[in-house]
Amino acid sequence: MSYYTPNPTYSPNLSRYPTTRPRPHIHQQGPPAGADPQLWQWFCAVDTDRSGALSVTELQDALVNEFDLDTVKMLMNIFDTDRSGTIGFNEFAGLWKYIAEWQRVFKHFDRDHSGSIDGRELAEALRSFGYNLTPPLLQLLEIRYASGAPSAYGPLPGITFDRFVRACVTVKTLTETFQRTDHDNDGWIQLNYEEFLKIALNAP
């Protein structure tokens, strides 16, 4: 199964960050070799306890609150490679590039430039990744990751960028988990109760 991953040129734009953020603390060791100086400056600015690593709340601040806490925790889990419970600068740099790639994907499939993804655009995005979900599954995804509660009248609220990332990563993670369990590749698996709960609880 193919999984589309864009490869944009990484070019952080820090001009959008609020000027009221804490003043950068320059760590004595300075930025790692080859590090983007602007990204290092921003990392130091949001590292408010000057620990040299970002907690979940500091990471959410680093993302300028454009991501809800559940998505921030998901990103933390992906990029906290040493399982320290925090994000060091190198991990943060990888996360930042990952987000930039997803922004390109989001903009590509946000055909009407509304700033959110509707059900049709979500289906198109998932198909391009190799995930051909049935209409009932797509509707469940749209309802779960919509940016607001469904209304009795009119269409569902759109899926914002952070929720779009979470929806796609969830489908990818669950699909890969299923494939590892489907040893004969027949599209069916047999699970006991504990195995099912492990898969559900480990989902993003």
What can you tell me about this protein's structure?
It is a single chain. The chain has 204 residues and is mainly α. 22% of the residues are buried. The N terminus is likely disordered. Helix 2 crosses helix 3. 50% of the residues lie in helices and 0% in strands.
Short description:
The chain is mainly α and 204 residues long. It is built from eight helices and no strands. The longest helix has 21 residues.
Keywords:
mainly alpha; disordered N terminus; globular; 8 helices; 204 residues
Topology:
Layout: H1 37-46, H2 56-62, H3 69-79, H4 89-109, H5 119-129, H6 135-145, H7 161-181, H8 193-202
Helix pairs in contact: 2-3
Class computed from helices, strands and strand pairing = mainly alpha
| Number of strand elements | 0
Q: Please report the number of helical segments.
A: 8
Shape: globular
User: What's the alpha carbon Rg, rounded to whole Å?
Assistant: 19 Å
Estimate what percentage of residues fall within beta strands: under 5%
Mean of pLDDT: 82
> How many strands, what sense, and barrel or not for the largest sheet?
none
Distance between the termini: 20 Å
Q: Helix share of residues?
A: 40-55%
Q: Which runs of at least 5 residues are low in confidence (pLDDT < 50)?
A: 1-28
**Secondary-structure element order, as H and E?**
HHHHHHHH
